């Protein structure tokens, strides 16, 4: 459950903020949307989310936010019919800030916004959550009057691939975790531990490495298979956990992963746990957490969570993951795609002991919420300026 502080003072002006994304089924963007909605409500503002819905809607509404169900993320020409509906909502609800978080919903929201009179439309914010493929379709994510980049790596990406974007419009706001939930002293509930290890007796006496993330080529499950094979060849008593769901469109890839596991004779050494609501507990009982993305990630939320729990992370040294490891756990960096380097590093860690995480994680939920709400308030206020002067 996303945590917020109770507001101590009413805001000078109560804002209405709309966030748009495809759905609320889970994931980093979805969680961040709830966290900002929670902060808005706690600050005395009004939070509305437009999406197709999903399992997180109940949690969103329990925070005091509102949800409007529109399938704005469906890849169909019919989705264009929602443009006038969104435009009407922005007008009728007196929306002050429109925050676009994903490309297709962003096009719907942007075209709705663009069709409103400039003097009465909301201020526009976009967030670049990832290193999207450059081109027309992705360009909408840089059309905000303010463009939030979730790491310095994404700032560099925008400057390189979108030179038309005025650098003063870019605002770097790191994603963050709640130190009250993710801390080195955290230990899972004894009942959870008993149940989990009872359900997974194959972990007894094993060195546990976990690869969190949905089952997709980007997350590097095939690299994991080769890493586990290499560690087994070196005599490491390792067992790997895969924690993440499989979308129906990714079934063919998942079959490829299972075939590779069987080909390498690792059926008893890799366990798929499916989608989990107890990822914090899983990370906390892991000896090492892996990040093996096949292209640079913008930030890597599970890396932050694992490091904040005091768990060592080994990850490919690029994008936001490399940025985090450089600041918090440089011993965990290996070259992108460096399966052999990963095997050698992990084998040494098993034999000699894993280096501890000694640096405090600086990426906090409170900072992310505070900086985002401040951006909204300044952009919507007189200092935001009619032509969108820089907010820094």
What does this structure look like?
- The protein is of the alpha/beta class.
- The chain folds into two domains: 16-176 and 365-384, Glycogen Phosphorylase B (Rossmann fold), CATH 3.40.50.2000; 190-352, Rossmann fold (3-Layer(aba) Sandwich), CATH 3.40.50.2000.
- It is 38% helix and 15% strand.
- The protein is built from 14 helices and 13 strands.
- The protein has helices at 28-42, 57-62, 82-92, 103-114, 136-139, 152-161, 190-199, 221-233, 251-263, 279-284, 301-308, 319-328, 339-352, 365-380; strands at 16-20, 46-51, 66-69, 97-100, 123-128, 146-149, 170-172, 207-212, 238-243, 270-274, 288-291, 313-316, 333-334.
- The strands form two sheets. Strands 3-2-1-4-5-6-7 form a seven-stranded parallel β-sheet, with helices on both faces.
- Helix 3 packs across helix 4 (103-114) and helix 8 (221-233) packs across helix 13.
- The longest helix is centred in the C-terminal third of the chain and has 16 residues, at 365-380.
- The radius of gyration is 22 Å and the shape is elongated.
- The two termini are 30 Å apart.
- Residues 1-6 and 386-392 have low confidence and may be disordered.
- Residues 27-180 form the Glycosyltransferase subfamily 4-like N-terminal domain.
């Amino acid at each position: 459950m996303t945590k917020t502080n109770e507001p101590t003072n009413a805001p000078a002006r109560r804002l209405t903020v709309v966030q748009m994304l495809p759905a609320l089924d889970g994931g980093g963007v979805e969680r961040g949307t709830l966290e900002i909605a929670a902060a808005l409500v706690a600050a005395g503002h009004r939070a509305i989310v437009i999406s197709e819905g999903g399992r997180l809607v109940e949690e969103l509404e329990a925070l005091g936010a509102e949800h409007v169900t529109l399938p704005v993320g469906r890849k169909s020409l019919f989705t264009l019919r929602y443009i006038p509906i969104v435009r009407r909502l922005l007008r009728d609800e007196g929306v002050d800030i429109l925050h676009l978080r994903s490309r297709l919903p962003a096009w719907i929201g942007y075209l709705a916004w663009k069709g409103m009179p400039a003097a009465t439309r909301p201020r526009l914010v976009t967030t670049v959550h990832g290193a999207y493929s450059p081109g027309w379709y992705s360009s909408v994510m840089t059309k905000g009057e303010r463009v939030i980049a979730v790491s310095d790596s994404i700032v560099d990406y925008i400057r390189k691939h979108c030179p038309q974007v005025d650098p003063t419009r870019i605002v770097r706001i790191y994603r963050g975790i709640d130190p009250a939930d993710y801390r080195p002293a955290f230990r899972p509930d004894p009942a959870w531990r008993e149940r989990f290890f009872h359900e997974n007796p194959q972990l007894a006496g094993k060195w546990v490495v976990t690869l969190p993330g949905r089952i997709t080529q980007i997350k590097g499950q095939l690299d994991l298979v080769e890493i586990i094979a290499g560690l087994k060849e070196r005599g490491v008593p390792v067992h790997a956990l895969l924690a993440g769901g499989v979308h129906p469109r990714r079934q063919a890839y998942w079959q490829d992963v299972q075939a590779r596991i069987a080909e390498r004779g690792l059926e008893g050494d890799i366990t798929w746990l499916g989608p989990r609501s107890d990822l914090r507990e899983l990370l906390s009982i892991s000896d090492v957490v892996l990040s093996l993305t096949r292209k640079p990630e913008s930030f890597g939320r599970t890396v932050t969570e694992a490091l904040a729990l005091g768990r060592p992370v080994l990850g490919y040294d690029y994008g936001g993951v490399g940025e985090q490891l450089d600041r918090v756990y440089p011993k965990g960096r290996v070259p992108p795609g460096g399966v052999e380097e990963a095997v050698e590093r992990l084998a040494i860690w098993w034999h000699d002991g894993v280096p501890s995480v000694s640096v405090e994680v600086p990426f906090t939920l409170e900072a992310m919420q505070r900086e985002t709400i401040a951006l909204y308030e300044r952009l919507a206020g007189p200092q935001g300026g009619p032509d969108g002067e820089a907010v820094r």
